[in-house]
Amino acid sequence: MFESLQHLVNGFGIAATVQNLLYCLLGCIVGTVIGVLPGIGPIAGIALLIPATFGLNPTSAIIMLAGIYYGAMYGGSTTSILLNVPGETASVITCIDGYQMAQKGRAGPALATCAIGSFIAGTIGIFGLVFLAPPLAEAALAFGPPEYFSLMVFGFIVLSNVTGTSIIKSLMMAVVGLIIGTIGIDPVTGDARLTFGSISLLSGIEFVAVAIGLFGIGEVLINVEKPSEMLEQRVLVPRLRELYPTLQDFKKSIGPILRGTGIGFGVGLVPGPAPVIATYSSYMIERKVSKHPEEFGKGAIEGVAGPESANNAACQSAFIPLFVLGIPFAPPTAILLGALLIHGVSPGPLMIGQHPELFWGVIASMYIGNFILLILNLPFVPLFANILRIPKKVLLPLVILFCITGMYTVNNSVFDIWMMFLFGGMGFLMRKWAYEGAPFLLALVLGPKLEVAFRQSLMISHGDFGVFINRPISVAFLLATLIFLLIPVFRIIIKSMKKGGV
Amino acid sequence: MAERLWTNPLTPSLSPSGRGEGEGKLRGEIQLSRDEIIGGAVIFLFGAVTTVLSLGMPIGTFRKSGTGMFPLILGILLMFLSGLFLLRLFLKTRATPEKSSAGEIPGSSKQLVLFFGTMVLVTLFFNRLGYPLSSFLLMLALLRILGVKRWRFNFPLSFITAIVCYFLFVQWLKIPLPKGWIGI
After folding, report:
1. Residues 6 or more apart from B153 whose CB is under 8 A from it?
2. Confidence at B151, pLDDT banded by 50, 70, 90
3. CA distance B142 to B119
4. Structural contact between residues A328 and A334, judged by C-beta atoms closer than 8 angstroms
5. Which of A77, A68, A21, A37 is nearest to A378 (CA)?
6. Chain B residues 108-167 with CB within 8 Å of chain A
7. Partner residue opposite B106 with nearest CB, options A38, A51, A227
8. Alpha-carbon radius of gyration of chain A
9. Chain B partners of A297 at a C-beta cutoff of 8 Å?
10. I want to staple B167 with a disulfide (CB 3.0 to 4.6 A). Which of A313, B113, B147, B171 is the partner?
11. A290-305: per-residue pLDDT in tens?
12. What ipTM goes with this model?
């Protein structure tokens, strides 16, 4: 425990250098701006800015990208409250009571509660990260290929279950992502696979091209297809009044903040889009424990404090599986994994020992980032909200230019831009046909790891599939997978029984 | 009421009230439309192509799997899932009349084709034109396509954007972007 604290102190030494502080500040500002812009979100934001970190050392790069991640989470709540426009997924719940508070002239307390709740959650979350990550990393050393395979399958099923319109569509997208991930050199035999003789495809499909294509270009194309009158519309930015919450507000908020932190931290450790699940769970629990559940949906401060704290805590704890297992359980951390790999760092149980400066530096920077965000979010909210004044017909070409520039800088290759357009077209169709991009992206990142784990497991067992069920940790993950697969089936049965009963 | 500028791919469909009235559609329900069938069929075809291509590679045994083993399993799995999806869709379509797409926001396909075509065209000549000129022309054309027709607005805006991007990426971040025939 004391060793971890000592490492944390060293981490603060690394994070507090002028260079890293500046990158942390830059990441937080850019992240907040991205969070304020509806739809871009942390996934596209990190993906777009990965190329900008190529000239940096891995620690500074991850500090900046992590800053973008939680900055976007903070920023997303701003427009949810002021304009009823969720900047990113996890802010959807905040819209419900946050916007109602703003309508009653209490936008200030809502925003301040958001910022303070997120700060408290972030602080507690960081201490959880400090004390839980090292023992979990040691436990992860007990994981062999079968355990990793089962864990990744579990991750896919959970993610497919909680995202999208139907589990079967999400699973299909995950399998398509896995197939795309097999393009390139076979990780076991070293043979070229599905490359059609192209040298550019030997190293596989460029992850950044897929991420920017699916989320950035796909979203732009969806907007371009809308009638031009819709592109003319501007968002009205309201004036900010009464910035500070009252003592009564604090009293009402502290319980939800602490509960939200606990829920968020726990949910962040399991596979899936943690911030989304955490905010939903926190809201439901707060409504359940409240003495006045009828106030929820009409501007209850608890409905803002709980979910926002859960959101931030989940973002912090989502770094644990990324750093100690090398497995991202959520799309933003999947992109961060891509960034780590680009910078030559392989996350996993040995990362804390091999790259202590990166691990502890990033953790310390999160705390500093939380503080920066608190300062940023309180006084500068009206300023950030002004970005929404940019009309879409100007914003969309700017995004395209930025996407093309960012994509070219990855390998100085026009081929990557073509790939980005291809996946942009795919992202457009996926949005039209209501398919989720998240399982696809996660599968693309994890695909090679999953394949290696699968093939190594079968090599160890001489082709016996029993290796997946004879090992306790592996079978536990597979059983959990089965339960998650059966949940929708049970739902359908219960629904049809209820219908039959009526 | 503020209109959502963009919809996040991960965000459940949200009503203007923000109450997630569309959440009922989130799970399990399959929208019975022609698009759904086309989507399912395309994915089935993708699985079939993957399977055929995998069979052309060494498969090996489970003990010592070849290059084609994993894609083959995935191709078959995708065909199974998309087949199941299409089957469910057909069964539901028979039980319920197909939903009309009336009431949906009419899309501007011409604008989309022009927009995407411009992106492709500029990329085709990206290396020859160079970064500053490409970014200027791209902005100018895309702004016009999206309805910013006044030259006194879109010309300076495109010019300033190209200059700012040039100084940001080329001069400040030292990223080697194409110089093209203008040589900067």
Report:
1. none
2. confident
3. 8
4. yes
5. A77
6. 108-109, 111-112, 115-116, 119-120, 122-123, 126-127, 131, 135, 138-139, 142-143, 146-148, 157, 161, 165
7. A227
8. 22
9. 19
10. B171
11. 888 788 878 889 989 9
12. 0.79
What phi-psi label fits residue A112: left (phi over 0), alpha (psi between -120 and 50 degrees) or beta?
alpha
What six digits make up the tokens of A274?
């943690």
The DSSP secondary structure of B123-175, one letter per residue, reads HHTHHHH-HHHHHHHHHHHHHHHTT---HHHHHHHHHHHHHHHIIIIIIIS--
Class of residue A390 by CB neighbours under 10 A (exposed 0-12, middle 13-18, buried 19+): middle
How many other C-beta atoms lie within 10 A of the C-beta of residue B34?
Answer: 10
Q: Are A34 and A41 in contact (CB under 8 A)?
A: yes
Q: Measure the CA–CA gap between A109 and A242, rounded to whole angstroms.
A: 7
The answer to whether residues B79 and B47 touch, using CB atoms and an 8 Å cutoff, is: yes
Could you give the angle at which helices A92-103 and A302-317 cross, rounded to 10 degrees? Answer: 150
Is the Cβ pair A175, B63 closer than 8 Å?
no
A233 touches B: beta carbon within 8 Å: yes
Q: Is A185 helix (H, G, I), strand (E, B) or coil?
A: strand
φ, ψ (nearest 5 deg) of residue A343: -90, 10
Q: Report whether A77 contacts A65 (CB < 8 A).
A: no
Residue that has been written with the tokens 């804390």 in this structure = A352
Phi, psi of A192 (to 5 degrees): -75, 145
Mean pLDDT of chain A: 79
Determine if the pTM surpasses 0.95: no
Query: Quick check: A216 and A44 in contact, CB under 8 A?
Result: yes
Contacts of B148 in chain A (CB under 8 A): 393-394
List CB contacts (< 8 A) between A334 and chain B: none
Integer angstrom CA distances of residue B158 from A144, B132, B153: 55, 10, 9
In sequence order, which residues have a C-beta less than 8 Å from that of residue A228 and are 6 or more positions away?
Answer: A393, B108, B111, B146, B147
Identify the CA nearest to A477 among candidates A467, A488, A486, A468. A468
Cβ contact (<8 Å) for B146 and A393? yes
